[in-house]
C-alpha cells in the first residue's frame, strides 16, 4: 500500500511539472500549446542522441533537457504562434488557429524521432547516473523519486509565490485578465509571452529527463499520451490556477494508480478522459478556476 502511494506521488509530481508549464501559458498569455507533448519528448530525444556520443551525468542531462525544451518552445511561439496572432482577424480565431497549429507542429519532432528510432523506445542507459535504492521498513525509495518529488514541490511553490507576490508575476497575470488593458498599463506582452513559453518548455524538458530515468525509456509517442493527462489535470484544477494544477495532477495519479493496481493498465487513458468529461459537465471552471469574463 505504501509502495503504491509513493509511486502515485512520484507520478503525480511528473504530471505536475509537465502540466504546470502548459497551464501557465494557457492561463496567462492564452496559448494552449498542443505541441507541448512533442517538446517534452524531443528534449529527452536530444539527450538520448548526445548520450550516444559521450556519457553525461544526471545534472548535465537535466541542463540539456531544460535548455532544449525552452529553446524549442520559444521557437514554436516566435515562428508560428506570434504570426498566427498577428494575422488572425480576432482573438477567438487566433485561439482556434493556435490550437490547430500546435497539433500540426507537434508532428514535426514526432516524425524526426520516429524516423531516427524506427518508433522503438529510447532511454538513457549510457548515462553515468544510476538511481540508488534505499529500504525503509517495507518501503523501497530511490534517490531519483526523492529528486522528482522535491523538484516538483519547489518549482510549483516558487512559481505560485512569484505569480502572487512579484511585480512581474502580477503583470503576467494581468495579461491573462485583460491583455489590451495590460498593454495600456505598460506591460510588454511580447517579452512576457516569450519568457512564459521558455519557462513552460524548460519545465517540459525537466519532466522529460526525470521521467525517462524513472520509467527507463520513452517512445516517440510518449508526449502525445502525456498531453491528454496534462489537459485532464488543468481542466480538473482550473485553467490558470497553480494550486488547481497540483491538485489535478495528484488526483489523476492516485486514480490511475488505484485503477492500475486493481484492474490493470488498460484503463489509464480512460481515467483521464473520464475526469475531463466529468469536470466539464459538473464544474466547467474546474475546482479552483474562476468564471471568465470576455469583452466583445
UniProtKB/TrEMBL annotation:
It is found in: Cell membrane. The keyword Transport applies. The chain crosses the membrane at residues 6-27, 34-52, 58-81, 93-112, 144-163, 192-214, 226-254, 266-286. It is a multi-pass membrane protein. Keywords: Amino-acid transport, Cell membrane, Membrane, Transmembrane, Transmembrane helix, Transport. Pfam families: BPD_transp_2 (PF02653). Its main location: membrane. Belongs to the binding-protein-dependent transport system permease family. LivHM subfamily. This is Branched-chain amino acid ABC transporter permease. It comes from Thermobifida alba.
Amino acid at each position: 500500500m505504501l509502495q503504491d502511494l509513493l509511486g502515485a506521488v512520484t507520478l503525480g509530481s511528473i504530471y505536475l511539472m509537465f502540466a504546470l508549464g502548459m497551464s501557465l501559458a494557457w492561463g496567462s498569455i492564452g496559448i494552449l500549446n498542443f505541441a507541448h507533448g512533442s517538446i517534452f519528448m524531443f528534449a529527452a530525444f536530444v539527450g538520448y542522441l548526445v548520450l550516444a556520443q559521450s556519457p553525461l551525468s544526471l545534472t548535465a542531462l537535466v541542463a540539456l533537457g531544460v535548455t532544449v525544451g525552452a529553446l524549442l518552445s520559444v521557437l514554436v511561439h516566435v515562428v508560428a504562434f506570434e504570426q498566427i496572432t498577428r494575422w488572425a482577424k480576432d482573438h477567438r480565431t487566433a485561439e482556434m488557429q493556435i490550437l490547430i497549429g500546435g497539433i500540426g507542429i507537434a508532428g514535426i519532432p514526432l516524425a524526426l524521432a520516429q524516423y531516427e528510432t524506427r518508433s522503438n523506445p529510447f532511454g538513457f542507459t549510457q548515462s553515468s547516473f544510476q538511481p540508488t535504492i534505499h529500504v525503509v521498513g517495507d518501503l523501497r525509495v530511490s534517490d531519483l523519486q526523492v529528486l522528482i518529488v522535491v523538484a516538483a514541490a519547489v518549482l510549483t511553490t516558487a512559481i505560485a509565490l512569484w505569480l502572487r507576490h512579484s511585480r512581474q508575476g502580477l503583470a503576467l497575470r494581468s495579461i491573462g485578465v485583460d491583455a489590451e488593458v495590460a498593454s495600456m498599463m505598460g506591460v510588454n506582452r511580447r517579452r512576457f509571452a516569450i519568457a512564459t513559453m521558455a519557462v513552460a518548455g524548460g519545465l517540459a524538458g525537466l519532466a522529460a529527463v526525470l521521467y525517462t530515468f524513472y520509467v527507463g525509456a520513452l517512445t516517440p509517442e510518449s508526449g502525445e499520451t502525456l498531453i491528454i493527462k496534462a489537459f485532464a489535470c488543468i481542466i480538473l484544477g482550473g485553467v490558470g490556477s497553480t494550486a488547481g494544477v497540483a491538485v489535478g495532477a495528484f488526483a489523476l495519479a492516485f486514480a490511475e494508480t488505484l485503477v492500475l493496481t486493481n484492474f490493470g493498465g488498460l484503463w489509464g487513458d480512460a481515467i483521464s478522459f473520464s475526469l475531463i468529461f466529468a469536470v466539464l459537465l459538473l464544474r466547467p471552471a474546474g475546482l479552483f478556476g474562476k468564471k471568465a469574463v470576455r469583452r466583445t
